[in-house]
Design brief:
The chain is 82% helix and 0% strand. The protein is mainly α.
């Protein structure tokens, strides 16, 4: 499980770099959607770092860590979706932003005061943080889980749907497909954990989702961060940088797909050998 444990650390590095670039871009351009995404990615960075921190190889799970992790999921996804909609339509973006902020406020008010006892799920955290997360969610009261699911649905729909809509309007915005697939992978990762029953699925899909989101953003990034407004980079340099980032994202995707398939295949092969050895 060592590889699985350190995947969230890699996701943290990517998400942290993404957050810094977003923050610098906001300081230069002062666009509201950039601020929304900066806050969202900050929450995502904290969340994936806590995933790593809850591993037995680092600090270990605790009620405080688990609260910090679970209560940040809904708001971060909701804000990512609200940021995309704000970019497409400021009017509807404000409505979605206020809705997400309102639901998040209620979620934090209820969740922060709710008692959380992880002792019943301690053994699952020893197996894998992903297993612990899957089982530990039940420690929260129903209203907290319901609000988190609602924010995930709203944010995921706006993020994925907004990116696909942007590409449909202008086919030159192929970077929107990276954003859409990044959102899809993050959305299905948790579901696949329950279906496949392998912690690799959750962490690797989360990592790949972050890579695709970051790649899509960098491919849409057109002006030098530190330059005054109106000063654009040479188009050749922009194209070269976009291709390099895209290539790194694709290679990361191939690597993680290979790692996941290998872990599943080797796990089944090992189980088969064990069963035969037991029979002998």
């Amino acid at each position: 499980m060592v590889m699985v444990t350190f995947i969230p650390l890699g996701t943290t590095i990517i998400a942290g770099a993404f957050t810094v670039i977003l923050a610098r871009q906001y300081l230069v351009r002062r666009k509201v959607h950039q601020l929304i995404w900066t806050v969202a990615m900050s929450l995502f960075t904290v969340g994936v770092f806590v995933e790593f921190a809850m591993s037995t190889e680092f600090i270990g799970a605790s009620a405080l860590f688990f609260k910090l992790y679970y209560l940040s999921i809904g708001p971060q996804v909701g804000l990512l979706g609200a940021g995309v909609l704000y970019l497409l339509s400021p009017k509807w973006g404000r409505i979605s932003l206020y809705s997400v902020l309102g639901l998040s406020s209620v979620l934090l008010a209820i969740g922060s005061t709710a008692p959380v006892d992880l002792s019943a799920f301690e053994a699952r955290f020893q197996e894998s943080v992903a297993y612990g997360i899957r089982e530990g969610v039940r420690a929260f009261p129903t209203p907290v889980r319901t609000l988190t699911i609602l924010l995930n649905i709203i944010g995921g729909t706006l993020l994925i749907g907004g990116a696909l809509f942007s590409f449909a309007v202008n086919r030159k915005r192929y970077y929107a497909l990276f954003l859409a697939f990044g959102g899809i992978l993050n959305a299905v990762g948790g579901s696949l954990l329950g279906i496949v029953g392998n912690p690799d699925v959750f962490f690797e899909f989360e990592f790949l989702g972050a890579v695709l989101l970051f790649t899509g953003f960098m491919m849409s990034y057109r002006s030098r961060v530190g330059a005054p407004l109106g000063i654009e980079e040479d188009s050749m340099m922009v194209s070269m940088r976009a291709r390099m980032v895209a290539m790194s994202g694709v290679l990361s995707g191939f690597y993680l797909t290979y790692a996941f398939m290998s872990s599943v295949a080797l796990g089944r092969f090992g189980a088969m050998l064990s069963s035969r050895a037991y029979c002998w």
